[in-house]
Amino acid sequence: MNKTQLAAATAVLVGMAFSAGAIAQAKPEVLVKQRQAAMTLMGKYFGPMYGMVQGKVPFNADVVKRNAGFIDNLSRMPWDGFDPSTKGAEHTKALPAVFDKEADFKDHASRLENEASKLVQVSAGGDEAAIKAQIGALGKACGGCHNDFRQK
Q1: End-to-end Cα distance, the chain
Q2: For the purposes of burial, counting CB atoms within 10 Å of the CB of 143, is it exposed (0-12), middle (13-18) or buried (19 or more)?
Q3: Is 92 helix (H, G, I), strand (E, B) or coil?
Q4: pLDDT per residue over 26-39, tens digit each?
Q5: 94 strand-pairing partners
Q6: 150, β-bridge pairs
Q7: pLDDT for position 56
Q8: How far apart are CA 117 and CA 120, in angstroms?
Q9: What does the pLDDT read at residue 25?
Q10: Confidence at residue 23, expressed as pLDDT on a 0 to 100 scale
Q11: How far apart are CA 5 and CA 19, in angstroms?
Q12: Domains in the chain, ordered, with CATH?
């Protein structure tokens, strides 16, 4: 490894250390707002696709591809905002079960990420029926977590 590569690797490691420290020191209310922002955006991009499944919005493969990509990325963002310091925080609909049943919560999060990733793959194929079925699977992943871990 030459000096430039070593300097770059060191800079990356230092940046990662500061990032991890910043997350650990973030105020609970900031973490709640950040995770809610990711969830809100997922809802924004899921809504039109769900409308397509219901027949309320004309099917548009290009919109599905675009929105699926956004949701795929967003699906990995909110989880570090569920820090134990946010348990019982104000302005959140997260139930204490998020922290009391952490393994189950992580399983739901993983299911959402997997279904979002599958939607990206399926949407690339262009098969409307398969795409709509996968949108439904993604919706079930969202709803399953909301049923168990979110206040109504």
Answers
A1: 55
A2: exposed
A3: coil
A4: 999 999 999 999 99
A5: 150
A6: 94
A7: 97
A8: 5
A9: 72
A10: 52
A11: 21
A12: 27-149 (1.20.120.10)
What single-letter amino acid sits at 93? K
Number of H helices and E strands in the chain, helices first, is 6, 0
The encoded tokens of residue 4 equal: 């430039």
Q: Fill in the amino acid letter for 143.
A: G
114-119 long-range contacts (CB < 8 A, ≥24 apart) are: 114/141, 115/140, 115/141, 116/68, 116/71, 116/72, 116/74, 116/75, 116/141, 117/72, 117/75, 119/64, 119/68, 119/71, 119/72
Compute the distance between CA of residue 105 and CA of residue 95 in angstroms, rounded to an integer. 11
> What is the rounded (10 degree) CA torsion for 120, 127, 44, 39?
-40
pLDDT on residue 150:
95
Which is higher by pLDDT, 135 or 15?
Answer: 135
Mean pLDDT of the chain: 90
